Every structure is written in C-alpha cells, then in structure tokens.
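**User:** Here is a favour to ask of a fellow structure person. Please take any protein you like and set down a full record of it. No explanation is needed for now; the record alone will do.

**Assistant:**
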Amino acid sequence: MVLARVYYELFSHEAEWLDAHSGADAELGRQLRLEMTDGSRVFIAWAWGADGDGYHVEFAPHSFCAGAPEVDRDVSAWPLWSPLVGQPVTLSYVGEGQQVLAIRAAGAAAYCCSFGRGVWGMDELRVGDRPPQHDREPARGT
C-alpha cells in the first residue's frame, strides 16, 4: 500500500482548532482517512469491542461514521504526514489492547492512539509523531 493522501474528517469546531495549530498533534472526534495510490482507502477511528464493552483504535476499508464529515481536511503536506506520502506504509498495533496503531514507512511513523493530554480517553483519536507516555492503562471494559 503506497500512501497517496491523508485526510482528517472533522467536525467544524475541530477544523477551527486545526487552523490555529496546523502541524500539531491532533485529537479527532471523527476519523482519519488514508488514501492509497491504487484507489483503496483505510479509515482509522474509535470502535467499541464486539461485546460493546471495550474500546480500541480500529482500521478498516470502510468509514466508521454515518454521513459526510462537516470538514474534510487534506493534511498530506503536514510535517507529520509528508515523510509517509509516496511511500509503502504498514499499519501495526503497538503493545496490547489495540490502543496504539503505528503507521510506518521509510523510517518515519505516525501514531493513532487512545492517550492524549495526560489521560486515557475515548471518543477521540489522538494523532501524533510519537507513541503515548502514560501513567496508567485504561480499565478493561471501559
């Protein structure tokens, strides 16, 4: 899979924040979309466990969200993503619990995870240039 473009699918209030902080780590309430040179897409978002009692970062060839995003922001040229664009990428989980997903290519990486701003959380996807540092693991079943 060769990465062609990267999009943040956003709510309008998230777009306002990103406009003021372009290139920074982001916390997305909706999802991330990777588009490949062969036309395929990979969506990355929060998902509940099969029993509805756990959460994790998940990726799939289909959208996790109903309806179109309020804002569709192309972030391919941002410093986090530009080293990956045009390269074959791999997606793999880091650690246990599918809480951190690494997107890697040619010595560069971006991380999608459940940890941001000092706490484990859900309903947002943190996207950044390094894996999270945290004080505690998320509680099972929460």
Q: What stands out?
A: Confidence is low (pLDDT under 50) at residues 135-142. Residues 3-128 form one domain.
